[in-house]
Every structure is written in structure tokens, then in C-alpha cells.
Request: fold
Amino acid sequence: MHRHVRLRPLLGHLFAVLILLSPAAYAEAVSPQEQAQVFASRATSSLMLLRGEGFQRGHQERLEGDIQALDNALQRMPQPSDALRRSHQALVTELRKGVSFGPSEDNVPWGYPQALSKSLRDFLHEVRQQPNAGGSELPAKIEYLAVQYLSRSYIGTFEIAREQPDTYLGQDERLLVPAIDAELASLQGAASPELDKLKVRWEYLKAALNDMNSKSNTLQSVSGRPFAPITVDRHTRSLTSQWMAMN
Reply:
């Protein structure tokens, strides 16, 4: 009995520590392959946010953090292929190049958005070829949709991998939103406060993503309302961090 009493403060302290842990700390339960997909799309979104919002220091620091998180995920992979390493280097090169142009859109070569989207697609494809790269990919799909949304908000249409229509790399909101809906619906039997919060956040994101209007080249939303890239970016990152923390 006395031993149980002595354990209570220790257990209480441990519980408090777990509450204070960041989502990144919990994300260790998610495979490095899944994390690499998430961080690659996050870094791309951060670059778009950096350019689109006037090169704010906070956005540049976030981009650097995302690139470092991507590097760390790659280092944790068991024997990454040479093709993966090359695609990683190509993606980081394009991200750095996007910063080097400076804030003026006039200094950005016309072909850069296509080069950036291709480098992201190539990297994501190579990650998915690695051993043990399975999993739900739900956070990767949501972050990939956010890249598409921010691209339409700031620089134009994002080129998806149309040669891969059966993977999320070749899909936009018309297929990915219903797929994510179905996956979340399958978790109904595992109800929890954390899952309820995640679903509420997804409902907001779903409305914004469905308004993206990828089938049109006019870069106007379905509703006619202005795009909301900062809000979509914030909710996306919070949702995917929460999902990885739960897994």
C-alpha cells in the first residue's frame, strides 16, 4: 500500500510531462518514411508562405525548421536508396532556389513553379518506394492538398503527378477529400476527445479544400470567395501534428 502511495506523485509527474510534449515528440511512433512525406510537403508550403507573405523572418525560420525535420527523417530511414537521396537533394535545391530569388515576383523564372512541383513529386514518389513506406498516409495526403491550395493562392496551379492517378500524388481535392473522409469515418468506433477535435478541424479544412476549384484554370474558388492560405496552412499543420501524435 505504501508503495502505491509513493508511486502516485511519480505517475502524476510522468503524466504532466506527457502533456507538455510537443506533437513532434509523439510523432516518433510514425515511420520515418511517413514523416518524410509530411515534412517535404510542409517545407514546400513554407516556401510558398514565405514568398507569398513578403519574406517574413518567422516564415523563413519555419522553412529552415521543415528542411531540417526532413533531413532528420531521411537519416532515420534504414538504407535509403540512392534515388531517394538524389531526389531529396533536388528538392532542397529547389527550395533554396526559391528563397534566393528574393521577394520580387519579377525575379522568379517562369518555369520555377513547375520545377518545384516536380521536385516535390519526385521525392514523394521515391519515399513511397522505400521498404516499410506503407501506413495510412492520411497526414501526407492532407499536407499534399495544402501544397496545392497554397500554390493556387500564391503562385498558380500545382502540377500533380497525372501519370499516377491511383496514388495521392496524382490526385487533387476531388478524390483526396472523399478518401480522407472515408478513412476518418472508419475510426468512428475509436471515439476519443482527441479524435473529436481532429474531426472538427478537418471539417473546416474540408470546406476550404473543396472550394479550391482545381478543375478550373481561372485560379478562382468555387464560391468566389478569396483564398485563405494562412488559415488553411495553420489548420493543416495542427491537424497532421495531432494525427501523428495519436499514432
